[in-house]
Amino acid sequence: MDKLLMIVDVAKCVGCFNCLMACKDEHVGNDWLPYTRSQQRHAQKWVDTIRHERGRAPHTDVCFVTQLCMHCSDPACAKAAPGAIEQRDDGVVLIDVTEARRGKELADACPYGNISVNGDTGDAQKCTFCAHLLDEG
Questions:
Q1: For position 50, what pLDDT does the model report?
Q2: pLDDT tens digits for 24-74?
Q3: 35, 72, 83, 85: which one has the fewest Cβ atoms less than 10 Å from its Cβ?
Q4: What is the DSSP letter of 132?
Q5: How far apart are the C-alpha atoms of 28 and 128, rounded to whole Å?
Q6: Residue 103 backbone zone (phi > 0: left; psi -120 to 50: alpha; other: beta)
Q7: How far apart are the C-alpha atoms of 5 and 65, rounded to whole Å?
Q8: Would you place residue 93 in the very low, low, confident or very high pLDDT band (cuts 50, 70, 90)?
Q9: What is the distance between the terminal CA atoms of the chain, rounded to a whole angstrom?
Q10: Contact present, 73 and 91 (Cβ < 8 Å)
Q11: How high is the mean pLDDT of the chain?
């Protein structure tokens, strides 16, 4: 099976945070088992838009870069925490919800800092590429 890719056109991003809000709308208050438990409402972002400012006044420029799990081809988190990470045939990398209690260990394993610990549950969580929707077709 081909690997799924998510492409974000940074030239068109204006920092509206709609991608963050869509993710929150889908995952806050919703357990999508066996993929993940509910995302924490505050202090946790599976999709984040980072604002970068360049230059000095009066010649400045602002750009936004969307950051989320890379769903790596050879995930470092899977090597650091054997049995806790699953990589599907389509390339989607998921944290096993029964192993997610290893929160800090899993969060520290991501070289990009895209695994966070849910402060409400202590679970390690990250972007699931909305695997529950992909599997529904």
A1: 93
A2: 999 999 999 999 999 999 888 999 999 999 999 999 999 999 999 999 999
A3: 83
A4: H
A5: 13
A6: alpha
A7: 17
A8: very high
A9: 15
A10: yes
A11: 92
Q: Which residues contact 123 (CB under 8 A, 6 or more apart)?
A: 37, 95, 97, 100, 101, 103, 117
71 and 60 in contact (C-beta within 8 Å)? no
Token digits of residue 104: 């800090």
Length of the chain: 137
For 40, the token pair is 């924490």
Helix (H, G, I), strand (E, B) or coil at 16: coil
List, as one string, the DSSP characters of 28-97: BT--BTTTB-PBPSSS--SEEEEEEEEEETTEEEEEEEEEE----SS-HHHHHSTTTEEE-TTS-EEE-T
CA distance 23 to 45: 9
Structure tokens that stand for 131 in this block = 């695997």
What mean pLDDT do residues 69-90 have?
92
The Cα 123–Cα 38 span in angstroms is 10
Please check the confidence at residue 1 and state whether its pLDDT lies above 70.
no
Cβ partners under 8 Å of residue 80, min gap 6: 105, 106, 108, 109
